Automatic annotation (TrEMBL):
GO terms for molecular function: ATP binding; extracellularly ATP-gated monoatomic cation channel activity; purinergic nucleotide receptor activity. May act as a modulatory subunit rather than a functional channel. This is P2X purinoceptor. Signal peptide: none annotated. Glycans are attached at N205. Pfam families: P2X_receptor. ATP binds at K88, L89, K90, T207, N305, F306, R307, K325.
Length: 397
């Protein structure tokens, strides 16, 4: 009776291999419904245990320290705020030209373009060519294409390269030592004698008012860089200081230049360009008072100038102009920022990523045990086990 039962059990075990049709489908259905679990091998290896814990601590430090604390990975962010910038420059200076004439410069004179833009040019030095009128005159000897020896060097109708007009075909004396091509243009030609010192040196004490507002539309949050106060004299008396007065948006020009790593006197002579960068990094899980801007100043260029002219007619209806070559400091104001607020989706993603990273500790330790350890063959045999089943099939776990 026992032998009969054993034969029946062996026959039933081999049935899926010997039967056709429905037997194969039943076997496949059974395979789909099987539940497979991993086999764990407990390894008494202190070195691997220490490595495993160190890797886990490193992953936890990265996830908790960097992802959650530093990068605030649990927050939803808005990195494209709508910004508004308004500037206003104030100050008065007096310049004295070579002819001893004095001229008063105020905000309407030394700021270009008109106030209110996020790009501002402050005049610190200038060269004046007064009473120019259209006519013929010798080209400046400082222009290489204007130097000549005879008329053939000045072909009529050709513009002077980097010059001030059109050649008339004549070579004339500019002074006792230089002969240049005669041109048709604004005469006399531009004066190129640069003062030895900046004519508007007092501009270092001018003040620049920068009003900036950011709006993070994703969170319906707006904030400005000006202190909310009922004192009408506050903005007339305060001066920005990163430690003592960080909420005052009034900046002294000298302080801005020095913060960019340059001295005002050196930059004022030939001009330059400074980037004013305003950065907002707002954690909206904190009170709104903690959302404050940070200012940085970067020197972009040590030379900057351009030309402008004012036109007028005299009593004889003769058309004149006064040409100004202006040197000064260009301020480029840019605003950048981001705001973050707790969100369930980014928090879940960051937490899930951290859990996934913990699996790398196991993977690394397995690779070390199976391929680098002195007893790698032993660990390999203990980790993987061959199970032989019916029909000559071998399964390896």
């Amino acid at each position: 009776m026992t032998e009969v039962l054993a034969i029946k059990e062996r026959a039933s075990a081999l049935a899926p291999c010997n039967k056709k049709g429905p037997g194969v489908g039943a076997a496949l259905c059974g395979a789909l419904l099987d539940y497979k679990t991993e086999k764990f091998a407990l390894t008494r290896n202190r070195r691997m245990g220490l490595l495993y814990r160190l890797l886990q601590l490193a992953v936890l430090g990265y996830v908790l320290g960097w992802v959650f604390v530093v990068r605030r990975g649990y927050q939803d962010t808005d990195a494209a705020p709508h910004v508004s910038v308004v500037t206003k420059l104030k100050g008065v200076s007096v310049s004295r030209a070579e002819d001893a004439r004095r001229r008063l410069w105020d905000a309407a004179d030394f700021s270009r373009p008109p106030q209110g833009e996020n790009v501002l040019f402050l005049v610190t030095n200038f060269i004046v060519t007064d009473k120019q009128v259209q006519g013929t005159c010798p080209e400046s000897p400082s222009v290489l294409d204007g130097i000549c020896v005879e008329d053939v060097d000045c072909p009529m109708g050709n513009p002077v390269v980097h010059g001030n007009g059109i050649k008339t075909g004549k070579c004339v004396m500019f002074n006792s030592t230089h002969s240049t091509c005669e041109i048709f243009g604004w005469c006399p030609v531009e004066n190129d004698t640069l003062p030895r010192k900046p004519l508007l040196a007092e501009a270092e004490n001018f003040t620049l008012f920068i009003k900036n507002t950011v709006n993070f539309t994703k969170f319906n949050f707006s904030k400005g860089n000006t202190l909310q106060t009922n004192d009408p004299t506050y903005f007339k008396t305060c001066m920005y200081d990163p430690f003592f007065s960080p909420s005052c948006p009034v900046f002294r020009i000298r302080d801005m230049v020095e913060a960019a790593g340059e001295t005002f006197g050196a930059l004022a002579l030939l001009g330059g360009s400074i980037s004013v960068r305003i950065e907002w990094d707002c954690d909206l899980d904190q009170p709104a008072a903690h959302c404050q801007p940070r200012y940085s100043f970067i020197l972009l260029d040590r030379r900057y100038n351009f030309r402008t002219a004012s036109y007028y007619w005299d009593s004889q209806q003769q058309h004149y102009r006064s040409l100004l070559k202006l040197y000064g400091i260009r301020f480029d104001i840019s605003v950048h920022g981001q705001a973050g607020k707790f969100g369930i989706i980014p928090a879940a993603v960051s937490f899930g990523t951290g859990i996934a990273f913990l699996g790398t500790a196991t993977m690394i330790c397995d690779l070390v045990l199976l391929y680098l350890d002195a007893k790698a063959d032993f660990y390999w045999k203990e980790k993987f086990e061959e199970v032989r089943m019916g029909c000559g099939t071998t399964w390896e776990s």
